[in-house]
UniProtKB/TrEMBL annotation:
Pfam families: PgpA. It comes from Chengkuizengella marina. GO terms for molecular function: phosphatidylglycerophosphatase activity. Residues 37-160 form the YutG/PgpA domain. GO terms for biological process: lipid metabolic process. This is Phosphatidylglycerophosphatase A.
């Protein structure tokens, strides 16, 4: 009989793996704050943390994070066959599987998330830059893009939430 993995186990694993790789929820929330504070003067970092945590509750995001981190870890251990080992190890510019995995989880949050992901992938803000340039301290080929994906999704989520709140206030 095949083992069915409970969602609580998956959620716990995601938070543990992110922590083990040096990524805190607050790190991602900081990026969300950077992306949204210009549009919402009353935005608080706690709102951003809540949005990041909500994004990390989605199974598709959780699965992408687990797969991506596992690929990075296997590569660090030299456990991938060539040429995949070298492609991931060097974060080859034309290797797009890391972005493809990250983009897959962004789609649930619409075009704002997709364009924000592109911006973050290009400009490498906060922890994303740290992960992207950490060449002698771990491989983060997948993780930097996944963090960008989570931040982009959380940013989009907040943007939509603020619009909903504005509309509710105007109806009152």
């Amino acid at each position: 009989m095949k083992r069915q993995v409970h969602s609580k186990e998956v959620r716990t694993a995601v938070f543990e793996k992110l922590n083990q790789r040096g990524v805190k929820i607050e790190d991602i929330a900081f990026i969300v704050y950077e992306m949204q504070s210009a549009y919402h003067e009353d935005l608080h970092i706690d709102d951003c943390i809540e949005s990041v945590e909500a994004v990390l509750e989605k199974r598709e995001v959780q699965h992408a994070v687990l797969v991506g981190i596992e690929m990075d870890v296997l590569c660090e251990k030299g456990m991938l066959s060539e040429p995949l080992q070298s492609l991931i190890e060097t974060d080859e510019g034309l290797f797009g599987c890391d972005e493809t995995l990250a983009i897959g989880s962004v789609y649930a949050y619409g075009s704002i998330a997709l364009t924000t992901f592109g911006h973050l992938d290009k400009n490498k803000i906060g922890i994303i830059k740290k992960l992207d340039t950490k060449r002698n301290n771990g491989i983060h080929t997948f993780l930097d893009d996944l963090v960008a994906s989570i931040a982009a999704s959380a940013s989009s989520r907040l943007a939509h939430r603020y619009r909903d709140e504005e509309e509710q206030q105007s109806e009152s």
